[in-house]
Write a structure and sequence with these properties.
Belongs to the ROK (NagC/XylR) family. InterPro entries: ATPase_NBD (IPR043129), ROK (IPR000600), ROK_cs (IPR049874), WH-like_DNA-bd_sf (IPR036388), WH_DNA-bd_sf (IPR036390). This is ROK family transcriptional regulator. Helix content is about 45%, strand content about 20%. The chain has about 400 residues and is of the alpha/beta class. The strands form 4 sheets. The chain has a 5-stranded mixed beta sheet with strand order 5-4-3-6-10, sandwiched between helices. Strands 13-12-11-14-15 form a 5-stranded mixed beta sheet. Strands 7-8-9 form a 3-stranded antiparallel beta sheet, with no helix packed on it. It is globular.
């Protein structure tokens, strides 16, 4: 598809803002050299960002006898952004400045069997109000609220969540939130895309255009970026890689399908690998996925045979699923994120790489990096806030 002038301008704004956030303080000449833009184009965008309140001049740099150059950085006293990470058990809210530094955070527990839309919206609104109060920011300075919901978000703002205790179908979540916070623009998306945006701006995908960010948790999914922009598909539901088939007539998944990737590399599937390796393993906590995964990581490091077998099995299944993704999508980089990847990523990665190398075609495999998420804070709330920034820059 031919790119329009607006597409190019938007991409250039993103590039300049990303560079400012990563490398400030900088001068205009540095921006042009690093982003590949002309000095005139870079200067025009800098002026735009300054007028929008996102950029500030914070001093001057000597130029070896010529006129001193102005040092530029994100305007720390500029507008504010809010990112909301909704999981199956909590609502996590953070307030950010234009450098995407966390200024305040609030978290509310979601009770497992009380996840009606009104209940969840109430917790989101409470979290937003609490975080704003902690940040001591006027609501008029807030550019918007990015909200990540664990499910499918359609272009009309309806959400469907198929978590075991939710079973939402076409809930008008955007309208419900807008009614409760009418003074703040709200952007609604899911954690796959929020995590992908965070990786593009701050993580292992920075500097890459074609990216797959794989979220490993209770469920499994893929956030995709093509030519540096999120790939959403025709109905904003692209990325259901966890529900692609891995084993014919295999395990049944929570959506009623069989043999899905999720059932072999999501937390319940990993627990089943462990149970098959040792049915009486003391590492198993049937009603607590996190406790089991943490115990498995510790036992693997200590050389426990059952733990090592479960990790190896998980890594091989994940490697095959990633090989399929490499052959289909041909990404430059694949990033593993999510709480399961945080606990087990370093242990499964050698098996993943070895298996993917065996099953992927040679040419796309050689052009692909596989790594763990390097972001040391909540990537979902960070990505949700960055979606707000992208929308504003667009």
């Amino acid at each position: 598809m031919k790119r329009t002038y607006q597409d190019i301008r938007r991409t250039n704004r993103f590039a300049v803002m990303r560079y400012l956030i990563a490398s400030a303080p900088v001068v205009r000449r540095d921006i042009a050299a690093t982003t590949g833009l002309s000095v005139a184009t870079a200067s025009d965008i800098v002026n735009e960002l300054h007028e929008l309140g996102l950029l500030a001049e914070i001093g001057q740099q000597a130029s070896g006898g010529g006129r001193p150059r102005n040092l530029l950085a994100p305007a720390l006293e500029g507008p504010r952004l809010i990112g909301v990470d909704i999981a199956e058990t909590y609502v996590h809210v953070e307030v950010f400045d234009p450098a995407l530094r966390v200024l305040a955070r609030a978290e509310y527990e979601l009770h497992p069997h009380a996840n009606s839309p009104d209940y969840v919206v109430d917790r989101i609104v409470r979290g937003i109000d609490d975080a704003i109060a902690q940040a001591k920011v006027e609501r008029a300075r807030i550019l918007g609220v990015g909200v990540s919901i664990p499910g499918q978000v359609r272009p009309d703002g309806t959400a469907s969540v198929f978590a075991p205790n939710w079973q939402w179908n076409d809930v008008p979540l955007l309208a419900l939130l807008t009614d409760r916070v009418p003074d703040l623009p709200v952007i609604l998306d899911n954690p796959l895309r929020a995590s992908t945006v965070a990786e593009l701006w701050f993580g292992a995908a920075r500097g890459h255009d074609n990216v797959a960010v794989l979220t490993l948790g209770t469920g499994v999914g893929a956030g995709l970026a093509v030519q540096g922009a999120l790939y959403r598909g025709a109905t904003n539901t692209a990325g259901e890689w966890g529900h692609t088939n891995l084993v014919i007539d295999g395990r049944k998944c929570r959506r009623g399908c069989v043999g899905c990737v999720e059932t072999y590399v999501g937390a319940p599937g990993i627990m089943q690998h462990l149970a098959e390796a040792d049915p009486d393993s003391p590492l198993l906590h049937p009603d607590d996925q996190m406790a089991t995964i943490d115990a498995l990581a510790t036992a693997h490091a200590a050389g426990d045979p059952a733990a090592q077998q479960a990790i190896a099995t998980t890594g091989r299944y994940l490697g095959i699923a990633i090989a399929n993704l490499i052959n289909l999508f041909n990404p430059q980089t694949i990033v593993l994120t999510g709480w399961v990847a945080d606990s087990l990523g370093s242990a499964v990665l050698p098996y993943v790489r070895a298996t993917a190398a065996r099953y992927a075609l040679a040419e796309p495999w050689e052009g692909t990096e596989i790594s763990l998420c390097p972001i040391d804070r909540n990537p979902v709330s960070l990505g949700a806030a960055t979606l707000v920034l992208e929308g504003f820059l667009s």
